[in-house]
Amino acid sequence: MKQVTILGATGSVGQSTLDIVARHRDRFALYALTANDNDQKMRQLCRQFEPRYVVMADADSAQRLSEVIADLSTEVLSGESCLAQVAADDGVDIVVAAIVGAAGLLPTLAAIRGGKRVLLANKESLVMAGALFMDEVRQHQAKLLPVDSEHNAIFQCLPPGSIGQAALESGVHRIILTGSGGPFRDIDIAQLENVTPEQACAHPNWDMGPKISVDSATMMNKGLEMIEACWLFAVDQSDIDIVLHRQSIVHSMVSYLDGSVIAQLGNPDMRTPIANALAWPERIESGAEPLDLLQVSQLDFTLADESRYPCLGLAREAWHRGGNSMAILNAANEVAVEQFLQRNINFIEIPRLITQVMEQISTGPADRLDSILQADASARELALSLVVSGVN
Ligand code: NAD
Ligand code: MG
To answer: For ligand 1, what atom is nearest to the CA of residue 15?
Structure first.
């Protein structure tokens, strides 16, 4: 029986994980569930799963929750230190890192320092602190397994033991990262100025949280994933091809020196990569529909047009600059997406705002956690002030 903590249990990845846990209660027990402030949703989850602990980041939500589930054995905690505690406790075997954004960094690092099996969905934490993050994985012998569907696909296509190992030393020629192109892949570029948050969040193939949905529409998601792949598989961005694949059936591929290309295919359902990582190296039923290739019938691959997706170039630039540039890129993007969702800026101002932040903050080292957090805070502050003064 594996004891599981889900960081970000009320979110999209959290829900998919709980769906799998519910199918395999003989294998997985819930040690802790955590969330930001959605106590209504957490109340339902507690009634259904009765975990040992619940952590709400927000103290008022924790207070409300503890009143309505007083009859359960679940203990309700609150605050950042408790998030780290339920990620690192001795009783925990598996931590699913599914908080969105930089808020996931400290709890994810706590799980790594606890030497856990860490299922990484929270790509922002790896993007902002890559070198330090991977060092901690090695130092504490944590078992890092990617849940992001592309990286889980690449992981499945590489030889065993590939995480943190230089992929090119295993006969790999290139890594081919696929992306759907999001909801605006076919609209006239001139129309992008007028698209709404609702349209941006209506992804053609995947059902996800709002932040990653907007990232998919700008393709910053693919830029962050390119950086994520560089850290996970110890490659350079020049070793990665980004290919548009509108059906979202081929989740990514690895091309080898002998001409072989190995791909992982499946319906676009996060339960597949999550189940893969939860049970690895075994295989368990995930609830995902089996793939019917005759029904899919056609798989298309095209080049991503970077004039439609300027965020791809920004992510490349950040990787190229190195150091804390990726923390700056990530923080500026988080602010830009939030401001777009709140209708304070329009869609094409997202890359403009990030560009301005990257121009105005110079690159520094990222070898210490406090300097990474400082870069994150400075970039957020600058991005917000640029929104107030007007993005141009
Ligand atoms: P979501 O918005 O649906 O859920 C986010 C979760 O994080 C919620 O449980 C929320 O309570 C929690 N949270 C948010 N802010 C917090 C804070 N300050 N402190 C503590 N907890 C906080 O997001 P999602 O779509 O599930 O994505 C989660 C992560 O997984 C993201 O990093 C995303 O990029 C990645 N990811 C998601 C998908 C997907 O299909 N949704 C696919 C691949 C990767
Ligand atoms: Mg992905």
So the answer is: 26
Report which bound ligand comes closest to the CA of 12. Answer: 1
The domain ranges of the chain are 2-146, 167-267+304-389
Cα of 222 vs centre of ligand 2, distance in Å, is 7
Which two three-digit tokens encode residue 210? Answer: 């709002």
What is the total residue count of the chain? 392
Question: Which class for 121: exposed (0-12), middle (13-18), buried (19 or more C-beta within 10 A)?
Answer: buried
- Asked if domains 2-146 and 167-267+304-389 share a fold, the reply is no
Dihedral sign for Cα atoms in the order 100, 105, 107, 112: positive
Q: Which two tokens stand for residue 129?
A: 């602190």
Tens-place pLDDT, residues 76-121: 999 999 999 999 999 999 999 999 999 999 999 999 999 999 999 9
Highest CATH level, class, for 167-267+304-389: mainly alpha
The pLDDT tens digits of the residues spanning 193-230 come to 999 999 999 988 888 999 999 999 999 999 999 999 99
Q: At what angle do helices 310-321 and 325-341 cross, to 10 degrees?
A: 150
* Alpha-carbon radius of gyration of the chain: 20
**What pTM was computed for the model?**
0.98
CATH topology of domain 2-146: Rossmann fold (3.40.50)
- The one-letter amino acid code at 72 reads L
